[in-house]
Design goal:
Layout (H helix, E strand, L loop, with lengths): L8 H15 L9 H8 L10 H5 L14 H8 L2 E3 L5 E3 L1 E6 L2 E6 L13 H16 L6 E5 L5 H9 L4 E6 L2 H14 L4 E5 L10 E6 L22 H11 L2 E16 L2 E2 H10 L5 E8 L17 E10 L5
Parallel strand pairs: 5-6, 5-8, 6-7, 8-9
Antiparallel strand pairs: 1-2, 3-4, 9-10, 9-12, 11-12
Helix pairs in contact: 1-4, 1-7, 5-6, 8-9
């Protein structure tokens, strides 16, 4: 495939790689990091035996395992890393979600600029799907705050092809993958740009979606660290920023996680404080009562009962 003139050579090669893998009929559902580690610890998983092992399970592989041309595309895309015994590893993964394919970081996601994708992404996509199904008014402008690999905004752009969708992040690695994923999905209306929350954008939005990091991470990795007392800080900041930028009839869909301590939900308490007395109609629900249970083993979450995945939606009731 000829290089895409809209991309630097390495990005054009990465897009071509993803397209070539997709053409094989590849599908992969990304699991939690804990499950990934358990499955990869099996003796038979030591070396990749197919594309799902290379681009899904992040296993080391010999060069001749790949179909013709793919190894060269990986080299040109700068996503190859040497492994032991003359083997290689992919620095990216490919996961399927709602019929689309998304590039994101390989396992384990230990780098400060790693781009995460997993079960949280699936739940986030489901929350967006429900919001889109319930909406009657058209979506002309949308934003995905902290877009990561871009799945939220790209799914909005696929559902509303005429919409202008801003994929916003401060992580350059995330923006690279979001830009390529938008091209892979055939959504030219989804445009990646560097922005701290909504700071780089102007005007109002019919839909704002966000799946921010919500854990306290000692390494302060961009995709995990939410700040605040127990990881809720960034979610509160996004709520505050979004409420001021919703168009009449506009909706915020905020999927996040919250540590419950003695039955108390700190994010819900903060959200009530921000929304009380405003014009916004809002709803708050637990989508999954127990995620990332391994975080409870010590550190900041030693007193937490559980970490729940929640969805907050807020809508400006004024007529569009």
């Amino acid at each position: 495939m000829p290089a895409d003139p809209a991309f630097p050579p390495a990005d054009a090669a990465l897009l071509a790689l993803a397209e070539a893998v997709r053409a094989t009929g590849y599908r992969f559902t990304t699991v939690t990091p804990a499950t990934q580690a358990r499955v990869n610890a099996r003796p038979e998983a030591a070396v990749a035996r197919g594309l799902r092992d290379v681009f899904g399970w992040s296993r080391p592989f010999p060069e001749d395992l790949l179909p013709a041309g793919l190894f060269d595309l990986m080299r040109r895309a700068e996503v190859l890393a040497p492994a032991a015994d003359g083997l290689w590893r992919s620095l990216v993964r490919l996961s399927t979600l709602q019929g689309a394919l998304f590039l994101h970081s390989a396992h384990p996601t230990t780098a400060p600029d790693a781009v995460f994708f997993g079960p949280d992404t699936v739940r986030f996509a489901d929350a967006i799907h429900q919001a889109l199904a319930a909406r009657q008014a058209p979506i002309r402008r949308a934003a995905d705050i902290g877009c990561g690999a871009g799945p939220g905004g790209i799914l909005v752009a696929r559902a509303h092809p005429g919409a202008e969708v801003a994929l916003l992040d401060i992580n350059h690695a995330a923006l690279r993958l979001a830009r390529i994923n938008a091209a892979l999905a055939g959504t030219p209306g989804a445009v990646a740009m560097r922005s701290d929350l909504l700071a780089a954008t102007t005007g109002a939005f019919d839909l704002i979606v966000s799946n921010p990091p919500y854990l306290l991470d000692p390494g302060r990795r961009a995709y995990r660290h939410g700040g605040g007392a127990l990881g809720e800080g960034l979610s509160v900041a996004i709520l505050d920023a979004a409420l001021g930028r919703l168009a009449p009839g506009g909706t915020l869909v905020l999927y996040t996680g919250v540590a419950m301590v003695e039955g108390e939900d700190a994010f819900l308490a903060a959200a009530e404080g921000h929304l009380r007395g405003t014009r916004f109609a809002w709803d708050y629900r637990e989508m999954d009562p127990d995620v990332f249970g391994e975080e409870l083993e010590g550190g900041a979450y030693a007193r937490a009962d559980r970490i729940a995945a929640v969805v907050l939606t807020a809508t400006d009731p004024r007529s569009p």
